Amino acid sequence: MRRGDLVEVVVGDISFPNIGLARIGDRLLEIKGGLPGQRLRVRITRKGRRNLGRIVEVLQTAPQEISAECAVFGDCGGCAFQNIPYEYEIELKTYMVKKIFAPYNMEDKFLASVPSPARGYRNKMEYSFGDDGADGNLTLGMRKKGSYYEAVDASGCLLPHADFGRIVAETVEYFRAKGATFYHRKKDSGTLRHLVIRHGVTSGEILVNLVTKGGDDYAEFAKMLLEIPLENKIIGILHTINDSLADAIVPNSVKTLHGRDFFHEMGYKIPAFSFFQTNSGMTEYLYATIAEFAGDLRDRTIFDLYCGAGTIAQFLARRGAKRVVGVEIDEAAVSCARENAANLGNCEFIAGDVKQVVKDLAEKPDIIVLDPPREGIVPKAIPDILAFNAQKIIYVSCKPTSLAANLPAFLDGGYEVAQIQCIDMFPRTANVEVVCALVRKG
């Protein structure tokens, strides 16, 4: 087996996130997107400590495979599981998560995984401008698999509300007519970078954010958006200038072209750049699970670290907690959290980096809720979190491998896992939310 070789393999297992595993002699080959039972022709892309392969052709489908609902599945880098029944997707995700935690002998701690509606559930989409790779036509959608610059048309995407597709289609048509070009990082040329759409499912509000390299007058673009017939209502249109080379949305400046720079969801005010769960329909279930794992909240002080706009903190405050303190680095999110919680006398929010703020908090919590970014908790912050000696810690993770990486520090720090549950906040993608309840020993 050498790099560049074409080999035929049968996928015998799967690991998070959606990595098919096949054996070639005594070597294990990892194949992104491979499903158990598939026979594949694979190109070896890396050989060494990890042997990686790329699917060239599916020679035989897996027993559970079906025709994908989405016309661009396979090219689009967004979804992972359009080609299997959703029930099997949940089964695979549960298996992959349990496999991650197998070294900790936690099988009996898992509760039944919770499914979600698999269509129309996303309240946020970050689309990328690019080209179609063939004729160089401007496109707007998700990045094509294996490409930095090609984008797959997302106007028919099944994951968000249909209004998203209408906005995407009109936007790309508008900029094609203008002769506008996408920002090419390698050439450092072009202008258009991203289009971010956020939707308040319960409020019917839509917030649109156009992200570009450099500035221009986009008042006419905003006017065009407002003329699109939609089921929901656009309440804000922003123009963000991002001059960073990274393919991430780093706002150098933000201009409001129409309306306001926030939307409402589930009664909360959410700023344009603040985190909120992308699956509104399952969010309350997620919060109820956190509250259930926390137990009796009466006379309990709770720290909600990495609290975003403070929605979990407010949920727990309303469920009877004595006092809840939220900590978040995003000052705009903290400002909204304070505004949202103005009628709650048992909620306080602190703006700052968790790893710094926890060093200065003299108060001792009974329960700590952790909902960190995808990459988990910075290891340097964990000793200070452990020093609070809280009775319970509820760790919420959208990337199970990050939770697994942080878990040994908590186990070594005197905690044990009481319960763990998968909640599918991200159907059809490779991701899944995991809520883990840790209790202090003794």
What does this structure look like?
The structure is a single chain. The protein has helices at 86-100, 162-178, 219-226, 280-294, 311-318, 331-340, 354-360, 382-386, 400-412, and strands at residues 6-10, 13-15, 19-24, 27-32, 39-46, 51-60, 124-131, 138-143, 151-153, 192-200, 205-212, 233-241, 253-259, 262-265, 268-271, 301-305, 323-328, 347-351, 367-370, 392-397, 415-423, 433-440. With 442 residues, it is an alpha/beta fold. It has 3 domains: 6-65, OB fold (Dihydrolipoamide Acetyltransferase, E2P); 94-117 and 279-440, 3-Layer(aba) Sandwich (Rossmann fold); 124-271, Beta Barrel (OB fold (Dihydrolipoamide Acetyltransferase, E2P)). It has a 7-stranded mixed sheet with strand order 9-8-7-10-11-12-13. The protein has a 7-stranded mixed sheet with strand order 18-17-16-19-20-22-21, sandwiched between helices. Strands 1-5-6-4-3-2 form a 6-stranded mixed sheet. A hairpin with a 4-residue loop joins strand 5 (39-46) and strand 6 (51-60). It is globular and about 65 Å long. The model has no long low-confidence stretch (mean pLDDT 95).
